[in-house]
Design goal:
Shape: elongated
Radius of gyration: 35 Å
Number of helices: 4
Order of helices and strands: HHHH
Distance between the termini: 106 Å
Structural class: mainly alpha
Helix content: 55-70%
Strand content: under 5%
Oligomer: single chain
């Protein structure tokens, strides 16, 4: 019933119609776009600072990632090593004490 009310169209007119529609949509997007090609991006200051910090880690300067962070990373790395060393010494002390209990 609905199909009978539609006008008959040839295949050529359908393909021609679709190409003109695509062309007009593309043209309207080019001319009616709200962004400009030479516009500066509006980036928040905190995000820009993070991106700058990430650039220092992407430079190939021969350092490992945990060595590139600066003084604070060096302090945290050495504190972690000290904590591991103290933990290992304490583990050995407890294991020795449990293995050889003091005589009474």
């Amino acid at each position: 019933m609905f199909a009978a009310n539609l006008p008959k169209a040839s295949l050529a007119s359908l393909s021609n119609l679709s190409f003109t529609r695509v062309g007009s949509v593309a043209a309207s997007r080019v001319f009616l776009s709200t962004t400009r090609a030479n516009a500066k991006p509006n980036v928040p200051a905190g995000f820009a600072a993070i991106k700058e910090r990430q650039k220092t880690f992407n430079i190939d300067n021969g350092l490992r990632v945990h060595q590139r962070g600066g003084t604070m990373d060096k302090v945290l790395y050495n504190a972690t090593l000290l904590l591991i060393l103290v933990g290992a010494v304490e583990w050995v002390r407890v294991a020795y004490t449990l293995s050889f209990p003091p005589a009474k």
